[in-house]
Design a protein that fits this description.
Layout lengths: L3 H11 L2 E2 H7 L4 H13 L3 E3 L2 H4 L18 E4 L6
Antiparallel strand pairs: 1-3, 2-3
Helix pairs in contact: 2-3
Length: 82
């Protein structure tokens, strides 16, 4: 099984990583990968990316399926220093 550290590192290397992409990369079921990503998110390590920021083709608003192609995507959370 993939560790939370390995998943966080993969997100960092990819910049923006989609749930299904990580699921394939680590050979884990999407439900397990989603739970691990949610755990990293609750720990403040990563953040979920909004749809418009990561649409691969840039046409999600005009998608006839109503954004059916969109999956969850995450990136490393930027920590703001004082």
């Amino acid at each position: 099984m993939a560790s939370l550290i390995a998943i966080r590192d993969a997100v960092a290397l990819l910049g923006i990583a989609e749930l299904n992409q990580l699921s394939r990369q680590f050979n884990q079921p999407p439900a397990l990968m989603q739970a691990m990503l949610k755990q990293l998110e609750s720990m403040g390590q990563i953040e979920r990316v909004e749809v418009d920021e990561h649409c691969a083709i840039g046409a999600c608003k005009n998608c006839p399926e109503g954004k059916a192609c969109v999956t969850e995507a995450y990136r490393i959370k930027k920590h703001i220093s004082a």
